Amino acid sequence: MFRLSVSKTGTFESCKLKYKMSYILKLKPKDFTFFALGKMLHETLENFHKALIEDPEMNQSKMMAKFFKAAWITHGEELDLDGKCKLNDIDKKVCFDIIDAYLKRLAQEETPANIIGVEKQFAVDIDGLATIVGMIDRIQIDPDGMMHVIDYKSSKSTKYYEDKFFQLKVYAYIMMVEDPKLQTIRGSYMFLKHNFSLITKEFHRDEIMKMGAEIVDWAEKMQAEKEFPANISFMCKFCGFAPVCDSYQATQIVKHGKASW
């Protein structure tokens, strides 16, 4: 069966050539600092909440410091293709401030959410036609009793996600497949660089259970694609494949008035 994920689908939708380079040719993209920074924040929060689920009475500051240090060793000191550290001391301070603010936020919550799962892995077969795979950053039960799936975002801007709910719908679909009694589920993007603000939407079963057909449709489109055209936009400068993308490089030659030979 064809396996797809939210990120795989998003890549195909945004640029089919990038999809080909990443998932078919399996080329290694250029490293960007924000990728390593995001991984560090994700790993710190994941390990912290796993420990908190196991021991709700733990010393939160002490344990957060432990997981922050471990994540820095893994991602902050990781070397890029040029042999340089992907993150520097300024990046470390940015991460520290975010995590410190997160701890303070937890301490101020009068009725904290009941976090029941972090980094939940899934692989769901859809009628033998496709398999959707992935991981949910956080699952909690809100004070009003509603299940809430959350995806952490370390993006600088929130605008891109204001009307992009496919990822949250997939997560809601996974949870509703697991629990047929679930009728409504809340989904949110949590923006770590924006004081943990949320873009939230509630989804109902009659809407979400149609996602199976939509996922299969995406799988069929990916398998049928033959041309893999590039989609040139302002986002190309953030693409790790830009240095080897002839279509993007051609636009830079025109832009800077350089000879094409």
Helix count equals 9
Q: How many structural domains can be distinguished in the coordinates?
A: 2
What is the tally of beta strands? 6
Which descriptor suits the 3D outline? globular
- Percent of residues in helical segments? 40-55%
Distance between the termini: 44 Å
Low-confidence sequence ranges:
none
Whole-number mean pLDDT: 92
Radius of gyration: 20 Å
User: Major sheet, described briefly?
Assistant: 6 strands, mixed
- Strand proportion, as a percent range, falls in 15-25%
* Helix and strand run: EHHHHHEEEHEEHHH
Sheet/helix structural class: alpha/beta
Describe the structure.
The chain has 261 residues and is of the alpha/beta class. It folds into 2 domains: 1-15 and 113-234, no CATH class; 31-108, no CATH class. It has 9 helices and 6 strands. Strands 1, 2, 3, 4, 5 and 6 form a 6-stranded mixed β-sheet that branches. Strand 5 (184-191) and strand 6 form a beta hairpin. The mean pLDDT is 92.
Short description:
About 45% of the residues lie in helices and about 20% in strands. The chain has nine helices and six strands; from the N terminus they run βαααααβββαββααα.
SSE layout and pairing:
Elements: E1 2-4, H1 6-14, H2 16-24, H3 33-54, H4 60-76, H5 89-108, E2 114-126, E3 130-141, E4 147-153, H6 166-178, E5 184-191, E6 197-204, H7 205-208, H8 211-224, H9 246-255
Parallel strand pairs: 1-3, 4-5
Antiparallel strand pairs: 2-3, 3-4, 5-6
Helix pairs in contact: 1-2, 3-4, 3-5, 4-5
Give descriptors for this structure:
single chain, 261 residues, alpha/beta, 2 domains, six-stranded mixed β-sheet, 9 helices
